[in-house]
Specification:
single chain; alpha+beta; Ribosomal protein L11, N-terminal domain; Arc Repressor Mutant, subunit A; 2 domains; 5 helices
Length: 143
Amino acid sequence: MAKKVKAIVKLQCPAGQASPAPPVGPALGQYGLNIMDFCQRFNEMTKTQPPGTIIPVELTVYEDRTFAFKLKTPPVSFLLKKALKIEKGASNPPKTTVGEVTTQQLQEIAQTKMPDLNTQDLKQAMKIVGGTAKSMGIKIKKE
């Protein structure tokens, strides 16, 4: 018989750096989970990622206080900032820009995010990534 799901918790943690401090501790503590067990398992699974990479986690909490979690790919905004080597997006995106991204870079980011997007078509995935870039104040350079 399948375990009864109590909650689904979504977190974003730096690869290999999960600790019981906020946001992990309070988010998992309210369900009575073993926080250190999660941190150790998460850090072990993400130790191959570059340090500081943000990894979204979808944690399924069961009634018997056990859990299972699934790692996702880094957020598009994180990948765009990394590709352009910028700290943050524009404060007023329609009027100001913080950089330009090439269609080649868009394609690479779309391929990285493909497992988590709701499309299997690369062109559509590039449009999704392009929309995020536009909302961050990043211009798309046509080649």
